[in-house]
Each structure stands twice: as C-alpha cells, then as structure tokens.
Amino acid sequence: MTVLGISAAATPNSRSELLLNSLLDEFSKTTRDVKKIFIRDLKISFCDGFRSCEKTGECKFADGMQVLEKAILSSDIVVVSAPIYFTSVPAKLKAVVDRCQLYWARKNILGTFSTSQKKGIFVSVSGRTQDFNHAETIIKAFFSVFNIKLCGKFYLPDTDKLDNTQFVKAEEDVKKLVTEVEDESNC
Ligand SMILES: Cc1cc2nc3c(=O)[nH]c(=O)nc-3n(C[C@H](O)[C@H](O)[C@H](O)COP(=O)(O)O)c2cc1C
Fold first, then answer.
1. Which listed residue, of 7, 58, 77, 111, carries a Cα 20 to 30 Å from 13's Cα?
2. Model-level pTM?
C-alpha cells in the first residue's frame, strides 16, 4: 500500500504540516511506502482557462503537476493537509486544483482517463473559524477527478489560541485516522 501526503503549508513547522507528519509517521508503522510532496516546492502555473486540454487531452504547461500526477496515480491513500486562508485553501493549492481540469476533461469529455479507487484524507487547521466547509468542498472536487473518496478528515480550529499541550494532543488524535480509513464502513 502506498500513502502520499500532500502539504499545502507555507513553511515546514506549520501546524497543518506537523499534523500531516504525525499521521504519516503512524502510517509508516504498517506501511513501508509513505511519500510526501510539498506544494510550496513545486512550480505550478495557473490554469489560463484556454481549455485546449479539453480537445487535446494535454496541458500546455509542463511543471510540478506532472510530479503530482505521477505520485497520486501510484498511491492508494492520498492525504492533503492545508491551513485555512480566507475561508478556503491556500492559493497555490487552489492553483493545483484548477489545473485538474485536464483530468476532468480526459475523464468526462475525452473518455481517456480512469484510475483505481483510492482513499482520501483531509487535514486542516484554522486560526479561528470552525467552518471548514469551503475547503472541504474544494478538496472533494480535487479528489473526485482522481477517483479518491474522502474517507477521513481532521479539522483543528482556533490555532491562534492553542497552547502546546493542546497541540500535542491533536498530534496524537490525528493518528486515529489510520484505523478509520482502514475500516471499510467509513469509506
Ligand atoms: C493569508 C492567511 C489567511 C488566513 N485566513 C484565515 C481565515 O479565513 N480563517 C481563520 O480561521 N484563520 C485564517 N488564517 C489563520 C491560519 O488558518 C492559522 O494561522 C493556521 O494555523 C495556519 O496554518 P499553518 O500553521 O499550517 O500554516 C489565515 C492565515 C493566513 C496567513
């Protein structure tokens, strides 16, 4: 089984990435193949909406999306972690999602793309809001093009006020997702 973690955090020690690390460490206990990709390290062009991919089945931009595509397609479980920025996901992750129009077109217009069913997890943190709905909707749309079902989620609000003890507890709590996604009734 291959597990891929995708971090949309701006910096390595950010809360969303520490939670991802904790979860992936837990997966590592039973799975040898655990990979991590940092969106901040990828060069990602913005979709220009020209829609040539809907005719050609190819994207005009050659960049980090190819790295991401290869990693996702070879994974069984995909975990995305992201902070909430202005009620949504950070812009670079949204740019990644917009570029998925290529796969949507291959799947729904050209009929040239299919992939095995995968399991997905979304981990998110916010400074204040309890509302993760916008971000979750975007992640579900991202997952759906790659046939990934959202089987587990972990949302940590109020990071502005969180002390270290509370965060350490969250790092433990997020690990429960490993057994949750393995339980077929959750997925
Ligand atoms: C650009 C920006 C926008 C933010 N927008 C929101 C927001 O809309 N709602 C909220 O509760 N917190 C917001 N925050 C706070 C972050 O969600 C919070 O600090 C979070 O812990 C950051 O995650 P990280 O530590 O993984 O980077 C924002 C932070 C930044 C930098």
1. 77
2. 0.97
